[in-house]
Design brief:
Elements (H helix, E strand, L loop, with lengths): L1 H5 L16 H19 L4 H6 L10 H18 L5 E4 L2 E4 H23 L7 H10 L1 H9 L20 H8 L18
Length: 190
């Protein structure tokens, strides 16, 4: 969580790449997401999972708060039946899809948080390619149920250049404008 490690207390009030959330609210969502996803995999009742949304998960140390819930999520993911359906608020889905959604949540919100901190989005080329190629359909589905904004075309679509996987991921998840400004320099021809 490079993006989270870059965030300071002074960044918490800044506007993130999610225009309705400050960076602090976004971080709280990310930390609470680990708790919610752990509860979902543990087959906790939906009302118990949803009750976590109104709580403050920031704690004294943002990284420690994040890792406390993330370690529990990963422990449960390693022990549970990932083919079992979980009662996510967008509808029932298998645990293995919840794992892919957590990858998306962490990576895409790292871009959103980078807007609030003014730093470059710390996305690895291999992860961006995986998200685009392997998770692109899931991103599209989540966009169709309100999880993301509608997909956007690259602002460079008419240029004679290739669009990077990182930029493609931002586009298919409906992220443009200020979020595109934190794209890392292109290191590959893709």
């Amino acid at each position: 969580m490079t993006a989270l490690s870059r965030a300071s207390v002074g960044d918490l009030g800044s506007i993130s790449g999610c225009p309705d959330w400050t960076s602090g609210e976004l971080i709280n969502h990310l930390i609470g997401g680990g708790l919610r996803y752990a509860k979902l995999l543990a087959q906790k009742p939906p009302e118990e999972v949803e009750a976590t949304r109104g709580q403050n998960h920031l704690g004294e140390d943002l990284l420690e708060s994040f890792w406390t819930h993330e370690r529990e999520f990963r422990r449960i993911a390693g022990e549970c039946d990932l083919d079992a359906q979980v009662p996510h608020r967008i509808g029932p889905l298998p645990g293995h899809q919840l794992l892919r959604m957590r990858i998306l949540e962490l990576a895409l919100h790292a871009a959103d948080l980078s807007v609030g901190t003014g730093a470059e989005w710390p996305i690895d080329d291999g992860l961006a390619e995986y998200m685009c190629v392997e998770l692109g359909e899931l991103i599209g589905h989540l966009g169709s149920v309100g999880g993301y904004a509608p997909a956007q075309q690259s602002a460079r679509i008419h240029e004679n250049t290739q669009v990077s996987y990182a930029e493609r991921v931002l586009n298919i998840s409906g992220r443009t404008g200020s979020v595109s400004a934190v794209l890392p320099p292109r290191s590959s021809g893709r």
